[in-house]
């Protein structure tokens, strides 16, 4: 993980728009799926949205841990909850929010292939430059590396940033100024207030 980096917040509205673009890319390639496998936790909402856009009834998941909160990267990606459905002979679409290092997606692909699907395609909302794995379908390519904070992980990421920088006791205004200065992360007052109220669940 980079020592110094910037971060940006990905809103739910942006996720919806990007997932719809991703769905159109999949449709234009005439790819269909019997089931979508979401890589938990980040792929859960994109996976559900793709079910809606692509009219796929079946949604399941596997959970892989590679990053913890606040952009901390673990040494190895690890499956902590494997696939528990029969995929033999099925057309599978494997979905995640972001393809960063590529290690999570590669591990997920290897795992799903062990269930002998008839077809396996991969899709992500965001593809970062320099990833070791190239997915089949991408909503948007990210040319400049930065940490993406999806709305569903805003609390854990922002709190971890503040903890790392010894800013957990800061008031809302101080926290917002710090996030903007160090990470170029502009977060509105209401969100920071909500995040700070959740500290007791984390520390």
Automatic annotation (TrEMBL):
Pfam short name (any one): Pribosyltran
Highest taxon above the source species: Bacteria
InterPro entries assigned to the protein according to its UniProt record, in alphabetical order: PRTase-like, PRTase_dom
Keywords: Glycosyltransferase, Transferase
Gene3D superfamilies hit by this protein: 3.40.50.2020
One MF annotation (Gene Ontology) recorded for this entry: glycosyltransferase activity
Descriptive protein name: Phosphoribosyltransferase domain-containing protein
All copies of domain Phosphoribosyltransferase, residue ranges: 12-136
């Amino acid at each position: 993980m980079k020592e110094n980096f910037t971060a940006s917040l990905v809103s739910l509205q942006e996720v919806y728009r990007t997932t719809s673009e991703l769905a159109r890319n999949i449709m234009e390639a005439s790819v269909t799926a019997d089931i979508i496998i979401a890589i938990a936790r980040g792929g859960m909402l994109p996976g559900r949205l793709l079910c809606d856009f692509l009219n796929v009834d079946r949604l399941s998941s596997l959970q892989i841990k590679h990053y913890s909160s606040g952009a901390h990267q673990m040494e190895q990606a690890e499956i902590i909850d494997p696939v528990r459905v029969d995929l033999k002979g099925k057309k599978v679409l494997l979905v995640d929010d972001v393809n960063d290092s590529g290690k999570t997606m590669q591990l997920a692909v290897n795992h799903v292939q062990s269930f002998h699907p008839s077809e396996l395609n991969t899709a992500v909302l965001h593809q970062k430059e320099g990833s070791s794995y190239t997915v089949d379908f991408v909503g948007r390519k990210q040319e400049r590396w930065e940490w993406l904070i999806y709305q569903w992980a805003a609390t854990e990421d922002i709190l971890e940033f503040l903890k790392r920088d010894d800013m957990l006791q800061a008031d809302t205004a101080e926290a917002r100024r710090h996030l903007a200065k160090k990470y170029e992360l502009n977060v509105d007052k209401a969100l920071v207030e909500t995040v700070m109220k959740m500290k007791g669940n984390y520390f």
